[in-house]
Structures are given as structure tokens and as C-alpha cells.
């Protein structure tokens, strides 16, 4: 399981107001099960099936991206009505208002991805986010040192024979700060096909945005006890429904 400190550390750095609160993780990569169940596939057939699947998912992400962007932009608009309701949902509204204020501070601090992902969780039913190849956030993830190294090494492992190849792994994205704080540990599925001597590489990076209880020994120069307090505050917010988990997926495309 991915520890929640990295998402929360951004909030710690962004806003001291979270001290008043009473205080994301790792899941199976979606859509792999249908492929893994085809036990009679040869390696080449299985790799081709993964390539075909990733192509379809990338096309869907591209088609759905404009509507997703509109929804995200609407969440950044000022609220006309007060967030705090005098009813049974008042605690949820209060917590969401507080986390929302912290998220705005994060954007001002130059952490837009961390801001967006936190804001998107402050909803009763957040839909999964999916970023197509060459979108801003996919490019940021692609440029992260750990991801860049993985893609470079993947190219070196492409076989000299055959037309399809795939790998799956997990990565810790420790930099840059915005990616470390909003994602950190992710699952990666990469597949490639060779046409006319040129490999095209398709990559899917997946994360489940949520929080879990943890007791931290260290937190990148931020006092560990403080990070633990804020992280566990986020878990409690999640338990009562103020923060709602959802999936985040990024797609990338390379050639060799």
C-alpha cells in the first residue's frame, strides 16, 4: 500500500490551518484482469492484446478529456452559496471547505496537480481522472526522473525479434515536488509494437488517490509528527465522506 504522507505533506507545506482538523494509496491497475486471465496466450499474443488495450484506453482518454477539463475548472469557481450547512452534513461541508482552502494555497505555492487532485476528492461521487498522451499532466509525469529512467531502460530491453513486448511494474516518483506530493507510488503498464522497424511504446501510469493511517518517522524535512497528524486527519475526513477516493490514470507514447 502506498503511504499517504506525500499527498498530505503538500497540505502541510501549503497551509497551517489544517492544524485545526481532527487528521493517497495503491491499488490494482484497472483493466489488467481480462488480459491476465487469458492463460493460453503466447507471450507475443499477450503483448499484442495489451498494446491493443492501451490504444483503446488512450483513445477514450483523449475523447473524454475536454469534458473532464470543464468539470475540473468548475470546481475552481467561487462558491455562491456557503459551504457550511446547518444539518447532518455540516461536518462534511466544514471539512471540505477547510481542505478546499488548503488546496487553493497549494496552487498559489506552485503545486497545481496536488491542488487539483485534492479538490477533486472533495465530492460525493468523484469520477476517475484520465489524462491522454501529451496532455500537460501526462507530460509532467513522463518527465519525472524515475519515469524517464524507466522508459529509457525499457527501450533497451525491447527484443531484437518479434513485434510486440510489454512489462508492468511499480515506481516511486520522488520528484519533482508536485508529482511526489500528489502521486508518489504508482503502477505502470508499458507495451510496444514494431511496425516497419520502428517501435511505438504505449505507457499507462495509474494511482488510487486516497489516504490511509500511518505513523511517520521522517517526512522530507517536515516534522514527522506534524505530517502524521495531518495525514490521519485526512483519513478521518475520508472515513466520514469529506474526502472520497478515485482513480487517476496518465497515458504516454514514445518511439524507438
Principal-axes geometry comes out as elongated
Structural class: alpha+beta
Order of helices and strands: HHHHHEHHEHEEHE
Low-confidence stretches: 12-29, 80-88
Helix content: 40-55%
Strand content bin = 15-25%
> What is the domain tally?
1
| Number of helical segments with 4 or more residues | 9
C-alpha-based Rg, rounded: 20 Å
Number of DSSP strands? 5
Distance between the termini: 33 Å
Briefly, what is this?
The protein has 256 residues and is of the alpha+beta class. The protein is built from nine helices and five strands.
What this model shows, in words?
The protein has 256 residues and is α+β, with helices and mostly antiparallel strands. The protein has one domain. 46% of the residues lie in helices and 18% in strands. It has nine helices and five strands. The protein has helices at residues 5-14, 33-36, 43-75, 90-108, 112-120, 136-143, 145-157, 177-182, 224-239; strands spanning 129-131, 164-172, 185-195, 198-209, 246-255. The protein has a five-stranded mixed β-sheet with strand order 1-5-4-3-2, with helices on both faces. Helix 1 (5-14) packs across helix 4, helix 1 crosses helix 9 and helix 4 packs antiparallel against helix 5. The longest helix has 33 residues, at 43-75. The model is unreliable at 12-29 and 80-88 (pLDDT under 50).
